[in-house]
Every structure is written in C-alpha cells, then in structure tokens.
Design a protein that fits this description.
This protein has 267 residues and is of the alpha/beta class. It has helices spanning 2-6, 9-22, 42-48, 50-63, 76-80, 84-101, 111-120, 128-134, 159-171, 195-198, 200-211, 224-232, 240-244, 254-263, and strands at 30-31, 37-40, 68-70, 105-108, 124-127, 146-150, 175-178, 218-221, 236-239. It is built from 14 helices and nine strands. A five-stranded mixed β-sheet has the order 1-3-2-4-5, sandwiched between helices. A four-stranded parallel β-sheet has the order 7-6-8-9.
Length: 267
C-alpha cells in the first residue's frame, strides 16, 4: 500500500499491467530437450532482441544438446511492488512446471532474474557468463571502441559473474576500463526496484550520478535494463552478448518482440 500511495501512480499501474501480461500464457513457452537444464532468457532480453536470444540459445544447445527453454517471467517487478502473495503464487506455478519437466537448473542472462530465482524462488541458477567462461567461449569482436564497464547493481554480491564477464570480454578482444565505482561498489543505473518507473526523478538522479563518473559514453554492461537506461540518457551502451553474438538487431517494440521470442522459431 505504501508503494501505491507514495510513488508515481501511473508508473505503479504500468508495472502491474506489465506483470499481468508477463504471467499470461501467450508470453510463456517451455521446450524440453531431455536434459535437466533450461535457458531462461528473461523478459528484458525477450523484449530487447528475440534474434539475439535465439543466437544465444543456439550456442547453448551446441555445447549442451539437452538444453531446454523457458520463457516465463521471474516476477521481480511484483516483488518490487511488495506483492509477495502474487509472487509466491507465481513461484509455485513455475516450480511445478519445471518439476513436471525434470528441469533442475536455469541458465539466466538477467542479473535481476538471477537474484529473484535464486533468493526468492530457491531455484538453481547458472549465469550465462559463468557458462561462457567455463566453456572457454572465444570470438573476435569487430567493435573497436574503448568502453567503460558498468557492473549491474544486482551483481554487487556476485563476484563470480563479474569476473566471468571480464574473462570472456578479455578473450574476445573487447577493450574496456572500469568505472571508478565498480564490482561490489558499482552504482545503480536508476532502475533498481523499478525506480525509473515508480519515481522517475529519483531514477534519473541516480543514473546521472553514474554517468558522471566517466567522460566515456561508450558503456559496456551485461544487463539489458541498464542498456535501456543509458540509451535513454544519450549514451552509446552495448550489452556484452551483442558483441559476442553479433547480428542485426530486431527493433519492433518490446511487446511484439516478446511475442516473437515466445512463439517464433528457436533453432
């Protein structure tokens, strides 16, 4: 109730609509391939670029042929609004679905999905960056820019993912320098706890504090929500997966992209 009364009411209702649609069957797809692990791309990647999602999934299947696919929502926005009852119901449905398919582990791209699924749902979660590092993934990026690396704030307590991303970037020839505040001291992009939606003024203030740490506006990160924050402030951000799995980005709009991601071809 406090969130409803004290935050941006339009933003609050927007988040509720987002969650209502996200939990709809139209955006949920499950593919079992005989293994106990599935790719959980998350709402952000699905809405950002379904073709990139498919390129990542093809690589996952190439190294782990039994890799399944689950396009559900982790429910993080619901938790940000204090809706633990609704989140608990979603958790039970998701856990039941995964259990019926024999899926015990989820490979995730989104730091918020990682924290929510692991800490609030108690599921076994593997960062895509840890898997890329373990498989010694390598490529040669064609983007020769010098980036400033932004660690998403949900990874402050996840040094393994932070280091794995750096290991992969180094092997692929990505050039970057860290923000002065990085790793466990990383500043937020302004979207933590749905801040940019519920309290836009505060969100922009937090974002501008982050940007001011460097004169470099070519920002490298491994969170799609962060990419959107920096892009909205006139920066030139890129998600690490775009450098590793290059291609033409799909740009049809978030919800159309999510329908494509959930209902279109995968392999």
């Amino acid at each position: 109730m406090a969130a409803r009364n004290s935050k941006n009411k339009i933003g609050y209702m927007g988040v509720k609509l987002h969650q209502f649609l996200s939990f709809s069957p139209i955006f949920q797809r499950v593919v079992a391939r005989g293994g106990d692990t599935a790719f959980f791309p998350g709402c952000s990647l699905m809405g950002y670029d379904p073709e990139l999602m498919r390129r990542v999934y093809r690589w996952l299947v190439s190294v782990h042929p039994g890799m399944g696919f689950v396009s559900a929502c982790c429910g993080h926005p619901t938790l940000a609004l204090g809706g633990r009852g609704r989140a608990a119901a979603h958790r039970e449905r998701l856990a039941s679905l995964l259990g019926s398919l024999g899926i015990k582990h989820l490979v995730v791209c989104c730091p918020n999905c990682s924290g929510t699924l692991k800490e609030d749902f108690g599921l076994s979660v593997i960062s895509i960056w840890k898997l890329l590092d373990e498989e010694r993934f390598t490529c040669r990026t064609e983007d020769g820019r010098m980036f400033v690396l932004h660690d998403p704030c949900p990874t402050r307590s996840d040094p393994e993912t932070q280091q794995a991303a750096r290991n992969v970037f180094a092997r692929c020839g990505v050039k970057w320098e860290d923000y002065p505040s990085s790793r466990e001291k990383a500043r937020c992009c302004g979207k933590a706890g749905m801040m940019m939606v519920l309290n836009p003024e505060k969100g922009r203030e937090v974002l501008n504090m982050r940007i001011a740490e460097s004169d470099n506006r070519n920002i490298l990160t491994y969170c799609f929500a962060c990419v959107e924050s920096f892009a909205g402030a006139g920066c030139s951000p890129v998600h690490g997966l775009e450098l590793l799995f290059p291609g033409v980005r799909t740009a049809r709009g978030t919800w159309r992209n999510r329908i494509d991601a959930a209902m279109g071809r995968l392999l």
